[in-house]
TrEMBL record:
Belongs to the TPPP family. It comes from Electrophorus electricus (Electric eel). Keywords: Cytoplasm. One of its GO terms (cellular component) is cytoplasm. InterPro entries: EF-hand-dom_pair, TPP/p25. This is Tubulin polymerization promoting protein.
Length: 167
């Protein structure tokens, strides 16, 4: 392939999609997975006149029998079969963000205000988890038996009484 400055918009699109998702890719050949991504991202697949199956059939038709990839020339041949050159020129792969979808069921199950019993103890008033303190019984190392209500009063009981002055 030519240096990046001399590449046409179509060659640049081919190279971008050829290296997408593969750190070892050289950009000289395109895998079937990336061919499908190219067709989806460029709007080639419309679900009516051109489907994912059509795109896969064209890929299989233009690639060599024992190969899993297509070269740039085979790529041009595949585009001519689909007649979509202008849709692909200058395009890059689209990176999608994955987001969690909030559903009423999940919201109900994760609402900490509705928790009861020991599960309720794992969260503070704001609904945030207490971490390990909420899962493990912390040992009281104060020296008193658990449940003893007069903790800290021993020192007051054993203080020496003030001595009275002799008369």
């Amino acid at each position: 392939m030519l240096p990046s400055a001399v590449l046409t918009a179509l060659e640049e699109a081919f190279r971008r999609f050829a290296v997408h998702g593969d750190t070892r890719a050289t950009g000289r050949d395109l895998h079937g997975k990336n061919w499908s991504k190219l067709c989806k991202d460029c709007g080639v697949i419309d679900g009516k006149s051109i489907t994912l199956t059509d795109v896969d059939i064209v890929f299989s038709k233009v690639k060599n029998k024992s190969s899993r990839t297509i070269t740039y020339n085979q790529f041009r041949e595949a585009l001519s079969e689909l007649e979509i050159f202008k849709m692909v020129e200058g395009k890059s792969p689209i990176y999608l963000e994955s987001r969690a979808v909030a559903s009423p069921t999940v919201s109900r199950l994760t609402d900490t205000t509705k928790f009861t019993g020991s599960h309720k103890e794992r969260f503070d008033e704001t609904g945030r988890g207490k971490g390990k303190a909420g899962r493990v019984d912390l040992v009281d190392k104060s020296g008193y038996v658990s449940g003893y209500k007069h903790a800290g009063t021993y020192e007051k009981k054993v203080q020496p009484k003030p001595q009275q002055k002799p008369m």
